[in-house]
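Help needed: design a sequence for this.
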């Protein structure tokens, strides 16, 4: 759907909207909004940079899936009671985390390429329209200004939802066919929760890139700013933290003080969205993980070495989930406020 067709449709709907009942006007407004969403969704799917990036994500994830399934199937073939081991060891979840060393795991690929997908979808969301001269024409229509930025976010989010749910079901189907092990209800729910976390994780980078596209007028500037933050958190953040924390840990005079300082350092690491995502996925896809902090032997005395239920795992990572959602909402709110207050002039 072209911009001219959108403008004509919006003009007709807006004209009809003035004479309708309030409930009917709400319906027309929703039709206008979803018309914008459909237009943005189509534009994303027809963009070569998005097509290439989606293809790279698909190929790399399928490659990591194949190596994981091959590694697990070789281990099962060497054991006589493979089916019982598969049920007890949560082998189905290891499809997403295990690797034979030739390729990184599914989780590693998503953690690395997911932010790039979010950045590619959002870095020119607003300034791209501005540079093409279509934003002022769009704002001349009798529609709420926030429809533009909201529609771009919803369309990009729909692409992520469709892509990663499709990948998740593909991984599960491929694992069932190759391993012959069906996932339990708990494993299925963990995989679904993991996919939702992927979408939230990418939504953070999507909103960050949209924020930069609102603030900066040049597309290259917004893209480089988003990639710079991604590189900082992905590569340099852990190096910087280690430089300042090695001596801090070394000066601890007792075991309790060491544990306290170590946990404080973990809280510093949790400023990074990448680290939050790694913690959440490690707990959800590894039910035997009972804590993400350093604990003493006295603290674990008397505890049972058994896997956690899904509810307990979600409670364990709930602070990380809320922190990532809060960061996503902050980026979206700032971008929303700045965009609705910006002056839009014709080029």
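Sure. Designed sequence:
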């Amino acid at each position: 759907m072209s911009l001219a067709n959108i403008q004509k449709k919006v003009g007709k709907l807006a004209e009809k909207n003035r004479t309708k009942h309030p409930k009917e006007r709400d319906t027309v407004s929703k039709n206008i909004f979803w018309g914008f969403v459909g237009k943005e969704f189509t534009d994303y799917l027809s963009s070569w940079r998005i097509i290439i990036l989606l293809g790279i994500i698909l190929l790399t994830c399928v490659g990591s899936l194949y190596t994981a399934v091959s590694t697990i199937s070789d281990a099962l073939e060497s054991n006589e009671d493979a089916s019982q081991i598969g049920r007890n060891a949560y082998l189905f979840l290891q499809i997403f985390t295990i690797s034979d060393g030739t390729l990184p795991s599914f989780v590693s690929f998503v953690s690395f390429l997911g932010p790039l997908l979010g950045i590619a979808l959002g870095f020119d969301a607003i300034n791209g329209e501005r540079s093409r001269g279509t934003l002022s024409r769009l704002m001349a229509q009798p529609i709420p200004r926030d429809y533009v930025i909201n529609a771009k976010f919803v369309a990009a989010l729909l692409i992520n939802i469709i892509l990663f749910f499709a990948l998740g079901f593909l991984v599960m189907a491929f694992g069932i066919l190759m391993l012959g092990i069906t996932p339990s209800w708990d494993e299925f729910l963990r995989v679904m929760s993991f996919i939702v976390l992927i979408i939230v994780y990418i939504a953070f980078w999507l909103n960050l890139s949209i924020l930069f596209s609102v603030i900066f007028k040049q597309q290259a500037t917004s893209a480089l700013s988003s990639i710079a933050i991604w590189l900082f958190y992905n590569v340099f953040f852990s190096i910087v933290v280690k430089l300042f924390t090695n001596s801090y840990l070394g000066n601890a005079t007792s075991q309790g003080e060491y544990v306290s300082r170590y946990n404080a350092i973990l809280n510093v690491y949790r400023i990074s969205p990448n680290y939050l995502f790694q913690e959440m996925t490690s707990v959800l896809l590894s039910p035997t993980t009972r804590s993400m902090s350093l604990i003493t032997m006295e603290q674990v005395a008397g505890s049972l070495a058994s896997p956690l239920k899904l509810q307990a795992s979600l409670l364990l990572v709930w602070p990380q989930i809320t922190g990532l959602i809060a960061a996503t909402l902050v980026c979206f709110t700032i971008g929303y406020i700045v965009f609705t207050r910006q002056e839009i002039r014709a080029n």
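The first helix runs from residue 3 to 17.
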